[in-house]
Automatic annotation (TrEMBL):
PANTHER family found in the cross-reference section: GLUCOSE-6-PHOSPHATE 1-DEHYDROGENASE, GLUCOSE-6-PHOSPHATE 1-DEHYDROGENASE G6PD
Biological role: Catalyzes the rate-limiting step of the oxidative pentose-phosphate pathway, which represents a route for the dissimilation of carbohydrates besides glycolysis.
Region (Disordered): 51-92
Record PROSITE patterns: G6P_DEHYDROGENASE (PS00069)
A single GO BP: pentose-phosphate shunt, oxidative branch
EC number: 1.1.1.49
Family matches, as InterPro entries: G6P_DH, G6P_DH_AS, G6P_DH_C, G6P_DH_NAD-bd, NAD(P)-bd_dom_sf
Pfam families referenced in this protein's UniProt entry, alphabetically: G6PD_C (PF02781), G6PD_N (PF00479)
Keywords in alphabetical order: Carbohydrate metabolism, Glucose metabolism, NADP, Oxidoreductase
GO CC aspect terms: cytosol
Entry-linked NCBIfam families: zwf
Organism for this UniProt entry: Mycena belliarum
Protein name as annotated: Glucose-6-phosphate 1-dehydrogenase
Amino acid sequence: MILNQARNRPGRRRAQLENENVTLETLSSFHVVHPRSMGWYRAVKEKLSSKRDVKPLPATPGSQPLTASSPPPAAAPHAATRGAVSSSDASRDEIEMKDNTVIIVFGASGDLAKKKTFPALFGLFRQGFLPPDVKIVGYARTKMERDDFCARAVSYIKNAQNDAEITASIGKFKDLLSYVTGSYDDGAGFDALDVHLKDIEAKYTSKDRNRLFYFALPPNVFVTVAKNIKEHCYAEPGVNRIIVEKPFGKDLDSARELLSSLKQYWSEEETYRIDHYLGKEMVKNILVLRFANVTVGGIWDKSHISNVQITFKEPFGTEGRGGYFDSFGIIRDVLQNHLLQVLSILTMERPVSFSAEDIRDEKVKVLRSIPPITREDTLLGQYVGADGKPGYLEDETVPRGSVCPTFAATTLWINNPRWEGVPFILKAGKALNEAKVEVRIQFKDVTQGIFDDITRNELVIRIQPSEAIYLKMNAKTPGLQTRAMATEMDLTYNRRFADAKIPEAYEALILDALQGDHSNFVRHDELDVAWKIFTPILHWIDGTSGTRPSPVGYAYGSRGPAELNAFVERYGYQRTNSSYEWPVTKLGA
Ligand SMILES: NC(=O)C1=CN([C@@H]2O[C@H](COP(=O)(O)OP(=O)(O)OC[C@H]3O[C@@H](n4cnc5c(N)ncnc54)[C@H](OP(=O)(O)O)[C@@H]3O)[C@@H](O)[C@H]2O)C=CC1
Ligand SMILES: O=C1O[C@H](COP(=O)(O)O)[C@@H](O)[C@H](O)[C@H]1O
């Protein structure tokens, strides 16, 4: 049900509801609340909740209250809410930053802040998910007037049609913004920031102050900034949290050092380590898909699954970001974090509940069953110029003669009874033929004997673009013959959920941090075990353990190295037979 279903008549449905006997159940059946009705929605819900005296549902993966496009957490009792995800209250420590909240963005002059952080904050603001009296403060070394900062902060907000409502919201959003110039290593800048924050907070009604510090910063200043905030800007009484961006180190030792340095100042509970793939709708969907469907749960093991591929493809190269990229490479940039997170959710055992600690306990357990990646299981590539597009080495920001891989395919093995012998192939590359991130689970052959040359089942979870889940399967060819043909069951989101707004990953994650939900953030031990898996191969690539391997070349805009097909076939992957056509199959005469 959509509150204000007729979007051009926002008041009508609400007016109707105001005359009805609205209950919590009615309210929690709304999928989308029009931004203009959000204030009313919240007020009614609060009133009804206080009458009921029930605990709100926690913000948990897959539950409606998590997403920025759905109503705020529904205050319905667990059992009464269909499809609600239950969590163990015992392990929850969430304190929601409801009011008296300031969000401080460090590195506010930078790329991430402009492209992701501020647009996400705007998205949350527009949909009514930010605390009502919130203020947002940018902090960086760059000297900027407030107007310039505001213009920069809203420059990536999408409003191609000049929608009047969005334009008005941008105006109101700018009213929340202010900017402080200061350095990262000098306490005086942080003192000035604290004075500015206290000025803002002086207008708040309560003494409790909530400060959410977002590090949109390069990692070389993480520790200094963490220390300076703690020493100069820590609000007491109040709730203080830091959101830290990747990269969290370059290998096991540096990650441990970074973790322990940050821990001197910030507790695990106060720390939210972002891996933005954990905020993506289809990644969050994996838990629901696996544990809410007995059909899926029943075939999720080595008896049914032959091999799994998790693929990340980008159609552009490093283009000016080569300086950063070259000291990291594609494995640190994408595989060790984003793809490994997807893998752990795909393969973990059923958590006791959907609480943050229960989920992360299971993720850590499965990651600990993965031995370090071997050289034999790894294929490395680097793109070369093609069709007028420059090769990696032609990027001026890349060191000459670099052997940094821009493509990697590597196979992981899980030594536990569920997954023993199943290859998990992680593949990621820059400058490929398309933009796509997907999980492809290929099932085993059916028992032979009654069919010739029958295609294997494959379950595909397309994370982006155009979110979808489809199962490639065999069906009888329509008509009088009895022949099997490859077809699929298709859940393409924009067809099935025509009016759904899929939240941006950063919207979902910032909301989680405000609500105190760690489920979709990386815990310290998760990080440690992730680095254990990748460190030996990274040291080999870096040349710290002998000669550096040379990546094979692949053309800009291609599918990747020519060796890739043979690589995935080595692990049992079989291509679907060539008569399969998507989305429409022509049967011919
Ligand atoms: N950009 C992206 O799309 C993504 C970025 N990230 C991560 O987010 C973080 C920020 O990324 P991004 O915004 O691209 O980074 P930027 O290089 O744009 O840096 C952000 C800001 O930090 C300051 N800064 C830059 N270099 C230094 C330095 N050497 N010492 C001190 N301050 C510096 C600058 O602000 P000033 O000089 O004004 O203080 C700059 O505006 C990084 O950890 C990155 O890995 C993660 C995912 C995607
Ligand atoms: O963290 C990173 O992710 C982006 C890809 O993110 P996506 O949400 O667009 O899939 C990648 O381009 C970048 O190199 C990497 O640092």
